[in-house]
From TrEMBL:
Subcellular localization, as worded in the UniProt entry: Membrane
SMART domains referenced in this protein's UniProt entry, alphabetically: EMP24_GP25L
Residue ranges constituting the GOLD domain according to the UniProt record: 4-164
Protein's recorded name: GOLD domain-containing protein
Signal peptide bounds: none
Cellular component annotations (GO), alphabetically ordered: membrane
Membrane topology, record value: Single-pass type I membrane protein
Family stated for the protein in its record: Belongs to the EMP24/GP25L family.
Length: 169
């Protein structure tokens, strides 16, 4: 789970944010799949569940300004356990602090458990790859040894026949 909040920071608190201070945001995965797109906004948020492995990227674009201006953007991106809003969970269910802490711990345990299964699966895949590589290298070694011994045999045969011909002439 990933949650993000972004907003353009107002440089002058006395006046509202000018219309020129708008940006475009696109959140994409490593494979180029778009998960969020906002065009010419001053603030916003996004939420998505990651289905692809790898890094996700948020690209901010500003409208062309003449003359060029600079403005700051406040950006908060949370993922995994940090993405959950525990204060809202406590407010919605009117739960006491101990129950909220237990829910946090349960969520952390579930996350660790899922990560362990993922790592076990990756380890199994890596072991299979390692075994395939070892068997291929053994086969290549035997083929290389066979080629070398064949070349040695041919050289011995050639030299033997060569010297026998020299002896007769």
């Amino acid at each position: 789970m990933a949650v993000g909040h972004y907003s353009v920071i107002n440089p002058n608190d006395e006046h509202p944010l000018p219309e020129s201070h708008k940006l475009t945001l696109r959140v994409t995965s490593v494979y180029g799949n778009s998960y969020h797109y906002a065009d010419r906004v001053q603030s916003g948020q996004f939420v998505f569940k990651a289905v692809e492995g790898g890094d996700y990227m948020a690209c901010f674009f500003a409208i062309d300004h003449h003359p060029a201006i600079k403005f700051s953007v406040e950006f908060d991106w949370r993922s995994g356990m940090a993405a959950k809003d525990w204060s809202n969970v406590a407010k919605k269910g009117s739960l006491d602090a101990m129950v909220v802490e237990l829910k946090k711990l349960e969520d952390a345990i579930t996350s660790i458990h899922e990560e362990m299964f993922y790592l076990r699966e990756r380890e199994h895949d890596m072991q299979q790859l390692n075994n395939k590589t070892n068997s291929r290298m053994a086969l290549l070694s035997f083929v290389s040894l066979f080629v070398c011994l064949s070349v040695v045999g041919l050289q011995v045969w050639h030299l033997k026949s060569f010297f026998e011909k020299k002896k007769l002439i």
